[in-house]
Task: structure prediction
Amino acid sequence: MAAPNRGRRPAGAQGKPGRALALILIAMVALTGGMFAAGEFTPRLGIDLAGGTSITLQAKSLPGQKDAVNETNMNTAVDIIERRVNGLGVSEAEVQTQGDNHIIVNIPKGTDSEQARQQVGTTAQLFFRPVLTVAAGGPAAPEPSPSASAGDKAKEDKETGTTPSGSPSPSTTTQGRAVTDGIKAPAASPSPSGSGEPKGSQSPEPKPSADPATGALEKQFTTLDCTDPKARGKLGDNVKPSDTIVACGLNGVDQWEKYILGPAEVDGRDVDDAAGQLDQTRGMWIVTMEFTEAGAKKFQKITSRLSQQQPPMNQFAIVLDGEVVSAPQVNQTLSASAEITGNFDQESAQNLGNILSYGALPLSFEEDSVTTVTAALGGEQLRAGLIAGAIGLALVVIYLVVYYRGLSLIALLSLGVSAVLTYTIMTLLGPAIGFALNLPAVCGAIVAIGITADSFIVYFERIRDEIREGRTLRPAVERAWPRARRTVLVSDFVSFLAAAVLFAVTVGKVKGFAFTLGLTTLLDVVVVFLFTKPVMTMLARRKFFSDGHPWSGLDPKRLGAKPPLRRSRRTTAPTTDPKEA
Result:
């Protein structure tokens, strides 16, 4: 006689449902505790629900480059723009490509959102250019009348802090952002006002530099009005790094100045790292820069030459998208590291450090469209989404109660567990990976209600099929599980595959729908295996369900059950030989 197989559990075995329930309970407690530990109690909302700005940027090749708009450069640009925007502290900013030559930047409503938009709009390459000439930002003033006295002229020079040549007098206390090697050399003394741009270097009537520009460039410089946004917007068009250019920039007292700048000698890609930080020793905000090995050689060369020049030709301009964002003076030869000092506050220091770190892009961009969603409109859309979800959930509940009666309790508990897991995970994904709940994601969560309920229905119907075959509830629950399990896994696999494909091939907000659908599909498998099945096993031992109460949803009479299988077994009659009959 063969020994019985003790290694395999029969189909009707009950298992240990308590272990599975304990596991999912521990997961729920851990996720909830994570919410409290992170200080996040609600999912982050996207701009279509919380309000914010969506910017569409169109990529263009830089002058002198062909076929630069490609997948590699676009992905590089996305990474840099994302770091620049998030470097400002803008939470939940979303940067992604759309099509072949567009980038979508979603900036949720927040304290720094407007500043982030300004930086997104200035996405061209970053260059360090030597300053040749600097003057006030308006058109050149008319020549002074011959009657102007020499005394008046001397008085004017004294008040403006300029020498007759237009350069700052040696005794003038400038508010220029002095560049020093670390903290070895002292910074220039900042004046009480302004944010650190050179003041004394401004001249009412600029003189040609030692490296004179062409006549056309001088004429453009003389007539340029930097206070005119249209005039400033044309300056960066079709400019090459090797060109001598005219540019505009704000000085320390928020007044426009215009510059003639020499060819670029260092570009943003030569900056390895930069940051605005508080110098505890001197009690002032500074901007530190670290250069790459190649950038250090270039920077040493330019600072060696500029440190020997007189103002304003001892300055180099940091130019972003054709605009001067800073024009510090050079006091000594520098190489791998440097610091910019001046009358910085925390915001201006960190902003300049962010531009230096993340300013170098392989492409130029233009704003194609800007869409702003108010918080009120976002709130209305969120309420509409929640109402739609509540209606869908109510319809599912009504159907379950009417058709499955007592079994609906298991389905509702499972839906509740699924909701808790989904809510806590979405809340934690906000600070973890920047996930923001948008309207398509809400739609994905609503669709998930039907997917989850469908899994319960599959299992319940398998149990009912077993009861119709004449089995009692406890064996029916266990024998129905393998068949229901295969169906649930196949169904959820198809749903997850569709969500994964949708997430991979789409752009924009549709990704939110695909992500939520995929997440809830995975959670459906977890809930069915670790909660629905164990709870069904435990309730099958209760008299209300095991005896087939009319309100249990498992009444054999209502289901048209056959007589018990043990009473319908056939007995084999002995064979009778016809010859013996």
The CA atoms of residues 16 and 534 lie 8 Å apart.
